[in-house]
Amino acid sequence: MKRLFLHPAAVLLAALLAWQIVALVKTTPLFPGPLDVAGALWDDGPRLIREIGHTLRRAVAGFALAALTMIPLGLAMGRIRALGFVGEPLVAMLATLPPPATVPVVMLFAGTGDLAKILVIAYAAAIPLVINAAEAARNLHPMLGLVGRSLGLTRLETLRLIALPSALPMLAVAARMAASAALLVSITSEMLLSTNGIGNYLQREQENFRLDAGLAGIVLISVVGLILNRLIAASERRWLGWHYQSRTAETQA
Amino acid sequence: MTALLEAGGLAKVFPGRPDPVEILRDISFAVAPEEFVSIVGPSGCGKTTLLMCLAGLLPPSSGWVRFRGQPVTDPPRGVSVVFQDYSRSLLPWKSARENVTLGMRRLGLGRAAARDRAEALLAEVGLAGFEGHFPWQLSGGMQQRVAIARALAAESALLLLDEPLAAVDAQTRADLQDLLRGLARKFRQACLLVTHDVDEAVYMADRVLVLSRRPTRILREVPLALGAERDQIDTRERPDYLAARHEILTLIRAARPEGAGA
Amino acid sequence: MTALLRPVLALGLLAALWQAVVWAAVVPERYFPPIATVVQAGMSMIARGQMQQALFDTGSRAILGAIAVNLIGIGLGLAATGAPSLRRILDTVAAILQPVPPAAVVPMAVFALGLGWKLYAFVVVLVTIWPPYLATVSALAATNPVLLSVGRMAGFGPVAMLWHIRLPAAMPEILAGVRYATTIALIAVIVSEMITGRDGIGFLLFQKAFAIRIPEVFALMFAVGLLGSAMGLAVSAVYRGFAGWHLAQRGRAA
Amino acid sequence: MSTLKLTRRRLGASVTAAVLAAILALPAQAEELKKVRFAYLLSDTLLSVFRAKDQGYFAAAGLDVDLIPVQGGPAVIAALASGEADIGYAAPVPPLNARAQGVPVKLFLTLGHEADPDRKYVWLVASKASGVSSLADVKGKKIAINGNGTGCELAWRDHLAAAGLSYDDAEVVVLPFPQQEAALEQGTIDVGCAIQPFYASISANPEIGAKVIARGLLADEKEPVISDSVIGTDAWLSENEDTAKAFAHAVVKARDELLANRALVEEAAVTYLDLTPELAKTLDYSVLKPEVDVKPGEVQRILDALVKAGILKTPLKAADVSIDLKL
């Protein structure tokens, strides 16, 4: 009984019910209830799907750009002392700059089109990737480095064959953070300068005081984020099975 | 003489995919007070699992374990374990002294008394002067000495030793073997030593249990009468030592998974 | 000493990179001014007392917010570890809220919460609470099983186990979450100030942009970087206090 | 011993009295000045409000005006709707839009009117490089607005419609005012929507070679059109009409002083808006109409334009969305 009562779905349902009741009492368009939101979701459905397509396309592009450049850079920072010495505080400093604040600067170089947004997204995704890649490379067990040397691997081969795979679990964590950052910033950048995308939709509906539609957009973002998260978790299980299995094996031993 | 530790019909099956994995099957034996028993078996035969069941750290699938006549469900007072993976069994955020004090929690000593006792024990295992060091500042052999001191700290009647010397060099290993035996005798403790090293099993023990391969059973019990005092050179040359060693090695070779040479 | 040297070095490098971009003349200097002009703008803001005041306002909000939210996040993580049903609920809430950008929620939050400290607190909590919470939950769940066995042999109950074994072992990972959260707490405060602030760096960024004082906007951005670095150093000090063993252990291993 | 006790008791009594006096004094002071929370977005037309506060004109009128800066017109409405502010300042479009969506706010003052030919607050400016020289050339070009549901959107829609084009013929980019100049210079956008002080800055930029293709909120401004608005919630306005009037009088007083003395305007722009003295020189601080109360006819013109532009879906009546204070 208690179990059922505390089930997340039950809690969620209760929250929705409470929300609907408050909305019914308040009777102002500034406090739409779940039914209003569902209505807006239904009305704007096709448009929302189209808009989120733009958002995802740019998020994926920005994420890919960041992953391709920042993982090697981070690993190098972790392995090459001098590079880490200067690189790390630089990254730490850049990390405190909110991605939205970089928009005006990026705009100067890349305009207001897709490229600008993708660059801002890549910047946001880059931070966790480069930090974790450096950390993972530094935490590489000294034994593994020695193994590489004893096998006569070059520095690059050690990086590729030993450092990269052993850094994977930590990179997976970073990828998860970077992916949600990419989605987040993709939407934010659309709110700041865009002609399409779910962020633009949100901005427009909120500025026109259609709060139910705004919330519908947020619900959609939530769902997409959730699906993305599950997809990443599933691929982690698929590709990093060895890591989790060795963990469970330890627990059983 | 009443047994200190008794196991009856002990079995352990892990739920696995696709099929459950049967590790232990019907293991029964007893350890008397102050007795030193070694357990050897082919690699991967579930020695560690057996020890965890005996220590109350892992519930058996069936069968029972009794310590001083009481059923073991949780780690009982009076039993200490020296874990195989010493580098990970020490708390890295605590000094050697604090790690040893951890073993005394059940004794209810005051802070100062616990501290004194921990330092005495560390001196006993040859670590005087290293009390304030952190585990990662010590060599492998020294870390294992800290772990041994921690197990001794509980003043237990029974010490469960899980391949405690597997990862130290030969000289350290010989030293620690003598140290362990000496301390066990000094503190009148019973010991159950799990090892894959037949020489070590015979050299240390009053009795050796030889395990089969998985699902593990006890193949044979080999009693020894090598005397209370052991010597790394003399004991290892005694005919009864060599005979026991030969018998056990033969059994284990036959029990190897490949069955090579059988 | 090196702890201070490194950010300074990084700042120098950043300035050099900046100046290189200026010299490359990709963008008119008017919009991307030389580093000397930015420094000058920053100095003049210091002379007018604007910079210090803004740094103090934003910094105190961010630090206070970061401390509060990290404590709440770790507390929730501990509670969720103790009560699996709470954890399921919190994880669901986290999964729902995490993908939503604060910028999307803030306009609506203003309707519900107004413009005062409640809005600030809401934005900071919304974006900052999950890293320490998730780090705490995952780190506590992943304690090395050997250490757990050691604790059980020492006769630890659940509370003692948490206090003596699981929490210390989890500290490095928790503090990594804290570090991340502290950075984004600063970002959250600045974003809130940009939307509805009457003081602080966020407001000043907005005001300076309106007054077309571009070098001062960039000087403020550099100031944000410095403030963030300072907060990072503070977290590092906390890290050394609570998980210094981990750093030392790693230092030896590396 | 007893003297000590006595002293202590006396001390306690006097402290209690002091605390009580302080507590009693607090509401007394609050009663003296009526608290008015004013949410605004930065604009040069607000110099009068800043000055009225600084010079103590509000206090003299019995008001304690709290100035709350907010980013964007919709945020001003949000501040009012949430009860966080009593009155607010924005372009007329956001409050009217909000009213249409059921948010109970009304216009009750305006600080600026536009009219043909010269008095304008909004400019649509093309860069030379874009090749755009008239509204007709905008088709397929990138045009900027500072936000949805703003004066800029109305201006674009109305001017394009007057030129026989539709809003969708151009590619609309949302870009805050401060970013538009660089975007024009670099060719990121073809035509911007500017207000002061950005318009002055853009006009003075030789790299852009600015070409004004349209001016004013509406294409037809033979009759004066309100270009901004001071708004309040229905609830606040129904109970505080006198306060609203007192506020208006204080603002007018400050504004008259500014209008009479150019040096004062530039000084205020530097002080309150943080403009550089050079930029402050470019400021045009003149008014078309000395009155600040809103007339139904003026509001109706905007309302009709909003419906025509498609921003408002249903027609609204001026009487429902504004109050004429008849100052």
From TrEMBL, chain A:
Domain ABC transmembrane type-1: 52-232
Location(s), subcellular: Cell membrane
Organism placement in taxonomy: Bacteria, Pseudomonadati, Pseudomonadota, Alphaproteobacteria, Rhodobacterales
Name recorded for this polypeptide: NitT/TauT family transport system permease protein
Topology class, membrane: Multi-pass membrane protein
GO biological process, one term: transmembrane transport
TM annotation in the entry: 59-78, 90-112, 118-140, 161-189, 209-228
GO cellular component labels: plasma membrane
Keywords, alphabetical: Cell membrane, Membrane, Transmembrane, Transmembrane helix, Transport
InterPro entries referenced in this protein's UniProt entry, alphabetically: MetI-like, MetI-like_sf
Keyword Transmembrane tagged: yes
Matches recorded under Pfam families: BPD_transp_1 (PF00528)
From TrEMBL, chain B:
Descriptive protein name: NitT/TauT family transport system ATP-binding protein
InterPro entries (alphabetical): AAA+_ATPase, ABC_transporter-like_ATP-bd, ABC_transporter-like_CS, ABC_transporter_ATP-bind, P-loop_NTPase
KW Nucleotide-binding (keyword) present: yes
ABC transporter domain segment(s): 5-238
Tagged with keyword Repeat: no
Pfam families: ABC_tran (PF00005)
UniProt keyword list: ATP-binding, Nucleotide-binding, Transport
Molecular functions per Gene Ontology: ATP binding; ATP hydrolysis activity
Similarity section: Belongs to the ABC transporter superfamily.
Domain of life: Bacteria
Automatic annotation (TrEMBL), chain C:
Keywords from the UniProt entry: Cell membrane, Membrane, Transmembrane, Transmembrane helix, Transport
Main location: membrane
One GO term (biological process): transmembrane transport
InterPro entries referenced in this protein's UniProt entry, alphabetically: MetI-like, MetI-like_sf
Annotated membrane topology: Multi-pass membrane protein
CC annotations in GO: plasma membrane
Superkingdom, taxonomy of origin: Bacteria
Keyword Ribosomal protein on entry: no
Localization per record: Cell membrane
TM regions (residue ranges): 62-81, 93-113, 119-139, 146-165, 177-196, 217-239
Domain ABC transmembrane type-1: 55-239
Protein family (similarity comment): Belongs to the binding-protein-dependent transport system permease family.
UniProt name for this protein: Taurine transport system permease protein/nitrate/nitrite transport system permease protein/putative hydroxymethylpyrimidine transport system permease protein
Organism this protein belongs to: Rhodobacter viridis
TrEMBL record, chain D:
Keyword Signal in record: yes
Any Pfam family: NMT1
InterPro entries: SsuA/THI5, TAT_signal
Gene3D superfamilies noted in UniProt: Periplasmic binding protein-like II (3.40.190.10)
Key words of the record: Signal
Subcellular location: Periplasm
Signal peptide location: 1-30
One Gene Ontology cellular component: periplasmic space
Family per record: Belongs to the bacterial solute-binding protein SsuA/TauA family.
Protein name from the UniProt record: ABC-type nitrate/sulfonate/bicarbonate transport system substrate-binding protein
